[in-house]
Amino acid sequence: MHDYDIQHLRCFVAAVDAKSISKAAKEMFVSQQALSKRLRSLESTLGFSLLAREMTGVSLTPEGRAFYQDALAALAAFDACVAHGKELARHQHPPTASLCALPLCFESFGGALSAKAMEQFQATHAPLKFIFAELPDALLASGVLERTYDFGIGSFPKDDGRLCSSSLAEFSFSVLLSIDHPLSGESHLSLAQLEPYEMIVPSMESGPSGLPNFADISLEHQRVSPLRITSISEEKLLRGTLSFIVKPTQNALRYLSVEHVRTIPLVDEDGKPVTSSLDLFWRTDLPMNEAQRALKTFVEKAYRGRGLE
Predict the structure, then answer these.
(1) 183 and 243 both lie in a single domain
(2) How many CB atoms lie within 10 A of CB 134?
(3) Is the peptide bond before 208 cis (omega within 30 degrees of 0)?
(4) Residue-level pLDDT, tens digit, the chain, 309 residues
(5) The domain containing residue 267 runs over which residues?
């Protein structure tokens, strides 16, 4: 049984290429003493000297010259075997990554993630597997923390040390109301103006999805609609009433062509747009395999440069 392994060959080749044991040790992040000991061990096992040690560095002995060429071939063959094995394992057990996101993140709701881009991303990174899911805001953080999904896009508890994040964008909000509403002629609306009126919260949006903690906003009148909201049903809900709905502007813009509904920007008491941050977040202990790294990069690139949604 030979008392050496593949690392002995790597140390020998490194010393030859660097023409110096001290330089080779730095390149391999080991001490000079440890590298010298490993080279001596290799020579002792082989029974002949590989290197001539001189004050200016090292050079090959005649035996070492022949051994060097064989060592290069052996290392190349070993690396090829490792690469082949990894490729087989990658296809049989491909790394996976999963993402849950608010509906407003997807192109059908005006978001940055398009079906075409996601299909191209999957095809480019085959055989890696990716899962995309649409969830209401209230379920995003728990979905990630409970390890159902690797990443989430939306709002999350910023003080939770189990999660870390990357900021993607800021999005604004608009108010939907009937053209018969007393406020329909306003160019913008504040929460103070809306307070006397009833806010409809679509039940499918859980709170509603994407809104900036409306539980903390002092709107006294609020009711939850049991309907699965569409532009048509919302028009019927609002027509002839004093109720209103708040939606992310990118969603609300779909209602510009709806005859009986006005879409008006929501502003704060200073007249500035009410906004909320859109973050990509994940568990701090996520190992970040190949698929997870690729998915994180894909999402960040999709939002790069979009600014206020």
Answers:
(1) yes
(2) 16
(3) yes
(4) 456 788 999 999 999 999 999 999 999 889 999 999 999 999 999 999 999 999 889 999 999 999 999 999 999 988 888 887 777 765 566 889 999 998 878 887 778 898 899 999 999 998 888 999 988 877 889 999 999 999 999 877 778 899 999 989 888 889 999 989 999 999 999 988 998 898 876 544 443 344 444 444 444 444 444 434 444 566 777 878 888 888 888 777 777 777 788 899 999 889 999 888 889 999 999 989 999 999 999 999 998 855 444
(5) 172-275
> Is position 10 within any domain?
yes
Q: What is the CATH number of the domain that holds 28?
A: 1.10.10.10
176 shares a domain with 134? no
Predicted TM-score (pTM) of the model is: 0.57
**103 and 44 fall within a common domain:** no
3-state class (DSSP) for residue 41: helix
Question: For 276, how many CA atoms within 13 A lie in the half-sphere containing its CB?
Answer: 23
Read off the DSSP letter of residue 187. Answer: S
Residue 1 belongs to a domain? no
Token pair 């999805």 in the structure block, residue: 209
**Residue whose structure tokens are 């870390």:** 164
User: Cβ–Cβ contacts within 10 Å for residue 120, how many?
Assistant: 12
- CA-only gyration radius of the chain, Å: 31
| Assigned token pair, 43 | 């020579």
What is the identity of the amino acid at 39?
L
Structure tokens at 104: 């407003």
What's the CATH code of the domain at 129?
3.40.190.10
CA distance linking residue 173 with residue 246, whole number of Å:
7
Q: State whether 133 and 75 are in the same domain.
A: no
Sign, Cα dihedral of 251, 253, 258, 263: positive
